[in-house]
Specification:
The chain has 23 helices and 22 strands. It is α/β, with parallel strands linked by helices. Among the domains are: about 100 residues, Nucleic acid-binding proteins (OB fold (Dihydrolipoamide Acetyltransferase, E2P), Beta Barrel), CATH 2.40.50; about 190 residues, Rossmann fold (3-Layer(aba) Sandwich), CATH 3.40.50; about 160 residues, P-loop containing nucleotide triphosphate hydrolases (Rossmann fold, 3-Layer(aba) Sandwich). Helix 14 links the parallel strand 14 and strand 15. The protein is globular and about 85 Å long. Belongs to the helicase family. RecG subfamily.
């Protein structure tokens, strides 16, 4: 067995389980080893009822007085047990586990472990784990990996598979040159890999993580630098001059560009006409007006005889871009062929779209990443814009270059990254910043409240809807179990329908819905047919409905602040006053303090860094600041120092041995090649 072996090479894993692993992106044993735990469970000593704290996972010792109760509630069967200790009560409940009535025996003592919650004044645990005291004893103080899962794939299955892989695999040898490991005090690779899955103690875990984060950044930066060598002197074959249509578009806009937009547009124009190909990152906070900048560049390309492509991370966003771009172009004297290309189109529709792209009839092509798949042949691609994708880089560019294309590249991002960091990450990109919001915006009003405020919030929502506005409600994410997350959204919507005045149209949206259904909901929301949209964070990026003025986030404490800031960016995009209601399900003071940071600032990076300060560097495995920067384990905020170190080492290598010819760099050379190939493979899936 080697790292390239398929998952079925592992004992006990057949086609069916392999298919589940495929859903989380694991097809080979090597990929399994780099499927790092999402977090770890530490089995702490059971606490007394008096020491229970809401919103923490804790264990208690419980004596069963009488057989559990079972009842039906809607679609569920609910089993409950009421525990008592010195006059204090704790209510336990389980969904759809009726057999517990017979397995929790009166007169016996068990350890129950789960998240402590307060519901209607009662202290509760939902779905607590159940252990015999002697079994719990064995787990005490150990750290158990928790993996990202999907329906049907249990944490146990993943854990067992990883263990087996370690037992049977000849691991790769260390590839990082010794001088780097010494300089940066990095753990040995195989030690790190094992310890990240099965840490024996916390210190090992921190060492392991540091090493793997370093590797991730280091390889990424090295690959970027190699790319840079290839693109730096790429002659601008696609000279683009904005012409009449661009002038016309500018004068037909319902607003004037802000100073910052004008400046950035000038920088882009200079690139498009320049000697070498453009590689530019446009950073601008949510709502700063990046879309129109993209359109100006795309239209210029078309006017100069080139095709322009705009890539969005989701189909919903791609559609929305297509619509607003068609709208903005409507009425210009030049007719522009705008083509929308998405994964949910039928095979026939796709074929026809491919044909129009190949003939050049399609001039502005908008779509998800399906766009740059093998099948698309552009007639004369001159510009690629990627929106809200935070790591357009090595992979996509290599795919394009592989087709002999050297288009201009414009990357647009709302992720708040300070310039110094951005230069490290994006290395070879020039950076423009839109640091000004359109003047007609009123600052968003924020409040952090507890759950008892909900009825008031609902009355407020009704008033806003009566005034013609629209509302987003974000339900808590349940990373460990996407099925529960969906249930939450559906249940919440059902309950909300009873709580809000009739006549208000409420719909829900979640990531597992069919693309066509998502599109339909988003389109109806954008058209004002839906007033309240209950959603998971799938609406996080890019969606623009200026008439939406209220964003209510349930269980706000479970989100990283940078992510809440992104979510908040969905409102405050029009001329109406907008509001954010962060509902905290936790009564802890720290949580409140953390969320209050959102009140103080509208600067995404400031928010992220304050969040980190409060939670401290030890809290590396809690909430990720931003799921949108696609590093597997590194987080550019939390790991800014490691990122810096990786960047410095990459610079040294580049000076010392740019082509990695030295004997001591052979391992690294191979690893880097593998890294780039893996990137290519993923692109062509
Ligand atoms: P983002 O930067 O988050 O992608 P968008 O490009 O979606 O933001 O723009 C947000 C909203 O602001 C859109 O409704 C757009 O029409 C509007 N807008 C863009 N530029 C300006 C401007 N200069 N003045 C007023 N409104 C603007
Ligand atoms: Mg946008």
């Amino acid at each position: 067995m080697n790292t390239a072996s398929p998952m079925t090479a592992l004992k006990g894993i057949g086609e069916k389980t392999a298919a589940l692993f495929h859903r989380v992106g694991v097809d080979t044993v090597g990929e399994l080893l780099s499927y790092y735990p999402r977090t770890y469970d530490v089995y702490e000593k059971p606490v007394t009822f008096a020491n229970l704290e809401t919103d923490r996972v804790q264990a208690v010792t419980g004596f069963i007085h009488r057989a559990p109760d079972g009842r039906k509630a809607g679609r569920y069967h609910i089993t409950t047990v009421s525990l008592e200790e010195f006059g204090m009560h704790l209510q336990l409940s389980w969904f759809n586990m009726p057999f517990l009535r017979n397995s929790l025996l009166p007169g016996c003592t068990y350890i129950f472990r789960g998240r402590v919650q307060k519901k209607k004044g009662r202290i509760t645990m939902e779905q607590p784990e159940i252990y015999a005291p002697e079994d719990y004893e064995k787990l005490l103080d150990t750290m158990q990996p928790i993996y990202g899962l999907t329906g049907g794939l249990s944490n146990k299955t993943v854990t067992k598979a990883v263990r087996q892989a370690f037992d049977q695999l000849d691991l790769d040898t260390e590839y990082l040159p010794e001088h780097i490991r010494n300089e940066q005090k990095l753990a040995e690779y195989n030690f790190a890999l094992r310890a990240i899955h099965f840490p024996v103690k916390r210190e090992d875990l921190l060492l392991a993580r540091k090493r793997l984060v370093f590797d991730e950044f280091f390889l990424f930066i090295l690959a970027l630098r190699q790319m840079k060598e290839q693109t730096e002197d790429t002659v601008n074959e696609c000279v683009i001059h904005p012409g009449v249509a661009v002038k016309q578009l500018l004068s037909s806009l319902p607003y004037e560009l802000t100073g910052a937009q004008k400046r950035v547009w000038n920088e882009i124009q200079a690139d498009l006409m320049g000697e070498t190909v453009m590689n530019r990152l446009v950073q601008g906070d949510v709502g700063s007006g990046k879309t129109v900048i993209a359109l100006l560049a795309l239209l210029s390309a078309v006017e100069s005889g080139w095709q322009g492509a705009l890539m969005a991370p989701t189909e919903v966003l791609a559609r929305q871009h297509a619509e607003s771009i068609r709208e903005l172009l409507f009425g210009l004297s030049m007719d522009t062929g705008v083509e929308l290309l998405t994964g949910s189109m039928t095979a026939k529709e796709k074929r026809e779209a491919y044909a129009r792209i190949e003939s050049g009839e399609a001039q502005i092509i908008i779509g998800t990443h399906a766009l740059i798949q093998e099948k698309v042949n552009f007639a004369h691609l001159g510009l690629v814009v990627t929106d809200e994708q935070h790591r357009f880089g090595v992979r996509q560019r290599e795919t394009l270059a592989g087709k002999g294309l050297h288009p201009h590249v414009l990357v647009m991002s709302a992720t708040p990254i300070p310039r110094t960091l951005a230069i490290i990450i994006y290395g070879d990109l020039d950076i423009s910043v839109i640091d000004e919001l359109p003047a007609n915006r009123l600052p968003i009003k924020n409040c952090v409240v507890d759950e008892s405020y909900r009825p008031k919030a609902y009355r407020f929502i009704e008033r806003e809807v009566a005034a013609g506005r629209q509302v987003y409600i974000i339900c808590p994410m349940v990373e460990e179990n996407p099925e529960i997350e969906i249930e939450n959204v559906v249940d919440y919507t059902e309950k909300l329908q009873k709580k809000l005045a009739s006549g208000i149209t409420i719909e829900y949206l979640h990531g597992k819905m069919k693309a066509a259904d998502k599109n339909d909901i988003m389109e109806r929301f954008a058209a004002g047919e839906i007033q309240v949209l209950v959603s998971t964070t799938v609406i996080e990026v890019g969606v623009n409905v200026p008439n939406a003025t209220v964003m209510m986030v349930e269980n706000a404490e479970r989100f990283g602040l940078a992510q809440l800031h992104q979510l908040r960016g969905r409102v405050g995009r029009g001329k109406h006053q907008s509001y954010c209601i962060f509902v905290s399900g936790s009564d802890s003071k720290d949580t409140k303090k953390r969320l209050e940071i959102l009140n103080k600032s509208n600067d995404g990076f400031y928010i992220a860094s304050e969040d980190l300060k409060l939670r401290g560097p030890g809290d590396l495995f809690g909430i990720r600041q931003s799921g949108i920067l696609e590093f597997k384990i590194g987080d550019i905020f939390t790991d800014a120092l490691i990122l810096q170190a990786a960047s410095e080492e990459a610079a040294k290598i580049e000076k010392l041995d740019p082509e990695l010819k030295l004997e001591e760099h052979q391992g690294l050379r191979e690893k880097l090649l593998e890294y780039r190939l893996a990137g290519m493979a993923r692109m062509s899936l």
